[in-house]
Amino acid sequence: MRKIPPLLFLLSLALPCVLAVQTAIPAQASEKKASEHEEGNKEEKKEGEDSDISGGRFEGDPIYVHIKPIVIPVINDNGVEQLVSLILDIHVKDSNAADSLHKNMPRVVDALYRYLYGSLEDGSVKNGKLVNVTKIKNRAILAVSEIAGKENIVDVLVQAVSQRML
After folding, report:
1. pLDDT in tens, 68-78
2. Are 83 and 72 spatial neighbours (Cβ–Cβ below 8 Å)?
3. I want to staple 91 with a disulfide (CB 3.0 to 4.6 A). Which of 34, 65, 116, 155 is the partner?
4. CA of 14: how far to CAs of 39, 94, 151, in Å?
5. What is the pLDDT of residues 66-122, one digit of tens each?
6. Contacts with 154 (C-beta within 8 Å, 6 or more apart), sequence order
7. How far is Cα 120 from Cα 108, in angstroms, rounded to an integer?
8. Are strands 79-92 and 153-165 parallel, antiparallel or unpaired?
């Protein structure tokens, strides 16, 4: 049997402890960074809770209220002819108008569906099978003005229009 020198024996005992400490310190540091990152995200979410409102950060900046995508079926005598998808942003006068729209979002979406569905059905906002974006925009302004008041609405911006023939 071979004899191990005492210094080497002590090092063999200490090495696992040193390695354990070295791996534990970076793990603790990464856990701390992760928790700091999560706290930062919570603060950001608190500041930007109204994710459907943007702009108005500086004096004179426009304020927009974003509407979730709207999908409207176009129905004829044979059934559903096509699906029209719209993404709209509402440019409002001030932050009070934006807050009012945000609080009344279910009513805003209801008004948009009522005004746009009927217009697509009777063909008043279509050129043949294609929708007339200008007419859609004008109908959307009427719908939103019904809820927020015409004086609070600057414009309705059409961000996207998609038609899918069935």
Report:
1. 999 999 888 88
2. yes
3. 155
4. 38, 68, 77
5. 999 999 998 888 888 899 999 999 999 999 999 999 999 999 999 999 999 888 878
6. 62, 91, 92, 93
7. 18
8. antiparallel
Q: Tell me, what DSSP letter sits at residue 50?
A: -
Longest dimension (CA), the chain: 101
pLDDT tens by residue, 35-75: 555 555 544 444 445 578 888 788 889 999 999 999 999 88
Q: Does the predicted TM-score (pTM) go above 0.90? A: no
- Indicate whether 16 and 85 sit together in one domain: no
Same domain flag for 75 and 144: yes
Side-chain half-sphere CA neighbours of 91 within 13 A: 10
3-state secondary structure of 92: strand
CA dihedral 152→94→65→101, nearest 10 degrees, is -60
**Paired tokens of 165:** 């023939």
Q: Is 65 helix (H, G, I), strand (E, B) or coil?
A: strand
Range of the domain at 149: 53-165
> Structurally, how many domains does the chain consist of?
2
Q: Residue 123 — φ and ψ, nearest 5°? A: 80, 5
